[in-house]
């Protein structure tokens, strides 16, 4: 921990250790901020997204009069104080109504920022269905070839995955896969829909899946963007070498999932090979002496 | 019913840059050199007086509370008028101060080592201090074919002061200086050129070179076999390794590289 003052309590030390750069990082936290004049729609959107991202988000209650695209220092200050690397800033004015700026940070500096306009919004409480428990890890689906073709849309996809991913886990309980977030990019608009997965009884072991609309649904249109330069983005993607999985030698996998191993043998003398013993094929002493042709008969003991 | 998720393939940017390995502290370097390893200490110590297991330090420690010590013996050879309690308190304060100083020095060394990135492309992080930026600007100016001599300066940038040392090879004596020294130097040169005896003693030079090569080979071997040897091996192998004289001699040897005229 590089700080001039050593932490005096164990609690302070743990607090600082949680925030320092690590090999395996913590789950990214998001901060949801209201701008100078944020209307009801924008506030509702922020509250709903807070509900979706519940333990890993901070909702700021007061309005903060900043313009993220002009001056990023205020956002960086908040990010440093609350240790959040994702942010969602909502504001409203005549030129940009129902504005939402989604962004992420690298090393407490703004990496990417994309401004989206909300065209239509259906909130959680408007849809009268059963909801998922808080903290459910969602499944993300991206539809539309714009997400692969257009550079800005590709960054937006990466941003949305980062935002809604939740904690990274090695294994997941199948009954807990309840929440689906579906993003479609078509006609220059981005539609976000959330569904709850209902597992219905079917004849076989695999249950029948039914999707029921629930939760916030947004119709967004992309406005301004502030994307990081290529080399800064590459720098942020860089993973330390220690995280690379160790490659086991002499083991290979093929496409079908079969594992192949290689064994290295030394040179073998095939004449001295130890094979199965078949007792019936063993040479009897009489046969052996006949083969030798009396070349070396047994020496009889002479008295 | 639990499913194992496959390894993630989609690369997402990190939150913070990966942690840099911090350079070893002075003690850690010394311990590695000597082969000293950490010994895990027990958390409880047997207190003979209280006849129970007590902590090693902290609340109700094994040796009794040091702030309540009512007896401080005057050590042999100390001034009998001196206040021993004051001396103990002063020494503790000095120890704490020295520890803190060493910790700060280690931190500063680590910070300096971390930011001395010589040739990596210098990406602006936004929070570099003025000295770093100045250093970076100087490196950028000097990385031209004419080593920055004809590089235009910004309107308010101060002119670089001509460094008096100018590096080892760019040091020149003033033209009209010490006339006596110049005269003696020229006469000595003439004398060496005229004499029959060679200036370079071949045998001495060759011996020096051989010794240097042996030292390098020994250092390379020591690096490989470090884990196997221990304190004993280290002590036996290099008797005068970290002495001042041998270090200086080694430095001098390295400064004169190609001895084989």
Automatic annotation (TrEMBL), chain A:
Matching InterPro entries: Brix, Rpf2
One GO cellular component term: nucleolus
Disordered as annotated region, ranges: 267-303
Chain ranges of the Brix domain: 28-231
GO molecular function, one term: rRNA binding
Localization of this protein: Nucleus, Nucleolus
Key word Nucleus present: yes
Stated family: Belongs to the RPF2 family.
Name the record gives this protein: Ribosome production factor 2 homolog
Gene that this sequence comes from: Rpf2
TrEMBL record, chain B:
Ranges for region Disordered: 1-26, 112-132, 144-178, 212-261
Biased composition (Basic residues): 222-248
Compositional bias of kind Polar residues: 249-261
Swiss-Prot/TrEMBL keywords: Nucleus, Ribosome biogenesis
Principal location: nucleus
GO cellular component: nucleus
InterPro entries recorded: Ribosom_reg
Location within or outside the cell: Nucleus
UniProt cross-references to Pfam families, sorted A to Z: RRS1
Gene Ontology terms: biological process: ribosome biogenesis
Domain of life: Eukaryota
Role, per record: Involved in ribosomal large subunit assembly.
Family from the record: Belongs to the RRS1 family.
Protein name as annotated: Ribosome biogenesis regulatory protein
């Amino acid at each position: 921990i590089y700080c001039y003052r050593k932490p005096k309590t164990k609690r302070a030390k743990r607090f600082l250790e949680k925030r320092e750069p690590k090999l395996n990082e913590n789950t990214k936290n998001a901060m949801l901020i209201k701008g100078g004049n944020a209307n009801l729609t924008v506030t509702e959107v922020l509250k709903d997204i807070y509900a979706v991202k519940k333990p890993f988000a901070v909702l700021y209650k007061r309005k903060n009069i900043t313009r993220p695209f002009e001056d990023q220092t205020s956002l960086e200050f908040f990010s440093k104080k609350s240790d959040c690397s994702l942010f969602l800033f909502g504001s409203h004015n005549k030129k940009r109504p129902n504005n939402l700026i989604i962004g992420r940070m690298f090393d407490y500096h703004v990496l990417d920022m994309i401004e989206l306009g909300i065209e239509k919004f259906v909130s959680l409480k408007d849809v009268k269905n059963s909801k998922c428990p808080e903290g459910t890890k969602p499944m993300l689906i991206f539809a539309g070839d714009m997400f692969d073709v257009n550079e800005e849309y590709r960054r937006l996809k990466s941003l949305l995955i980062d935002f809604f991913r939740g904690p990274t886990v090695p294994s997941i309980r199948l009954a807990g896969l309840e929440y689906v977030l579906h993003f479609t990019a078509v006609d220059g608009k981005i539609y976000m829909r959330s569904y709850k997965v209902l597992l219905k009884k079917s004849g076989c072991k695999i249950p029948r899946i039914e999707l029921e609309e629930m939760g916030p649904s947004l119709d967004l249109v992309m406005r301004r963007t502030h994307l990081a330069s290529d080399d800064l983005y590459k720098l942020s993607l860089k993973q330390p070498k220690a995280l690379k999985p160790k490659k086991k030698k002499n083991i290979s996998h093929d496409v079908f999932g079969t594992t192949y191993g290689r064994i290295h043998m030394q040179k073998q003398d095939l004449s001295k090979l130890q094979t199965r013993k078949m007792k019936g094929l063993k040479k009897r002493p009489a046969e052996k002496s006949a083969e030798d042709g009396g070349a070396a008969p047994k020496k009889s003991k002479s008295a | 019913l639990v499913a194992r998720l496959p390894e993630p393939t989609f690369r997402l940017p990190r939150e913070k840059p990966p942690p840099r390995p911090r350079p070893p502290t002075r003690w850690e370097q010394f311990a590695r050199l000597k082969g000293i390893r950490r010994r895990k200490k027990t958390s409880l110590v047997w207190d003979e007086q209280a006849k129970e297991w007590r902590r090693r330090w902290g609340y109700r420690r094994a040796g009794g509370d040091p702030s309540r010590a009512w007896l401080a013996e005057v050590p042999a050879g100390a001034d009998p008028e001196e206040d021993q309690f004051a001396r103990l308190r002063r020494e503790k304060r000095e120890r704490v101060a020295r520890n803190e100083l060493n910790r700060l020095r280690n931190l500063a060394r680590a910070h300096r080592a971390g930011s001395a990135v010589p040739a990596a492309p210098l990406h602006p992080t936004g929070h570099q201090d003025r000295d770093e930026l100045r250093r970076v600007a100087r490196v950028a100016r000097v990385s031209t074919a004419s080593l920055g001599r004809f590089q235009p300066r910004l309107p308010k940038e101060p002119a670089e002061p001509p460094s008096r040392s100018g590096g080892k090879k760019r040091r020149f004596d003033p033209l009209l200086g010490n006339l006596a020294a110049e005269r003696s130097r020229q006469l000595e040169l003439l004398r060496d050129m005229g004499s029959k005896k060679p200036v370079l003693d071949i045998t001495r030079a060759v011996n020096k070179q051989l010794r240097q090569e042996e030292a390098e080979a020994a250092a390379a071997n020591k690096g490989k076999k470090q884990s196997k040897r221990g304190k004993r091996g280290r002590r036996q192998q290099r008797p005068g390794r970290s002495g001042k004289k041998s270090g200086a001699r080694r430095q001098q040897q390295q400064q004169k590289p190609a001895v084989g005229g």
